[in-house]
Amino acid sequence: MPSRCESYKGKFRSNLVLNTRRISIAEQVQHDAGAVKAAAFSEFPRFFNGIAYQPFAAAARSKPYCMSLSLDEIVPGIGYVKGNMRWLPLWVNACLNNFSDAQARILASRLAGLTPMIPVARIRPEQYASAKRPIVA
To answer: Is the dihedral of CA 10, 32, 82, 76 positive or negative?
Structure first.
């Protein structure tokens, strides 16, 4: 059995089951404690897109590391059940929770190498509502 490593919140792996259960109750979605426990005590992935995960934060650290592992629901409305969980870096999990579907697709295509990491085309004002004026080269 893997060692009892600390999570990014400074809690032991065994508490991951309780944390996801609390979230599931608050969001009124399903929770499979056995599946979460199996994920929590399995071998963790070591790399994301070629970048090594940071170790779990020490208890003295109040904030998580951006490259610490985070258990994500693939489809949020289903809950923490078998087949609907994956390990992601905390920053990707936070982005997916805050981005629109279109923004998430752009992020995924850049991480997969299908589009360049830095856009090379000029941004048109109609593409982003937040653009106040066209960018002039």
So the answer is: negative
Question: What count of Cα atoms within 13 Å lies in the side-chain half-sphere of residue 61?
Answer: 15
At 133, which amino acid appears?
R
What is the C-alpha separation between 18 and 20, in angstroms, rounded?
6
> What is the SS3 assignment for 26-95?
HHCCEECHHHHHHHHCCCCCCEECCEECCCCCCCCCCCCCCCCEEEEECCCCCEECCCCEEEEEHHHHHH
Q: What is the pLDDT of residue 1?
A: 35
Find where tokens 């090379």 sit.
Answer: 120
* Torsion sign (Cα): 94, 50, 117, 108: negative
pLDDT at 10: 42
| Phi, psi dihedral angles at 5 (to 5 degrees) | -75, 155
**pLDDT at residue 118 above 80?**
no
What pLDDT, on the 0 to 100 scale, is given for residue 133? Answer: 53
CA 58, 61, 63, 66 torsion-angle sign: negative
* Main-chain dihedrals φ then ψ at residue 101, nearest 5 degrees: -60, -40
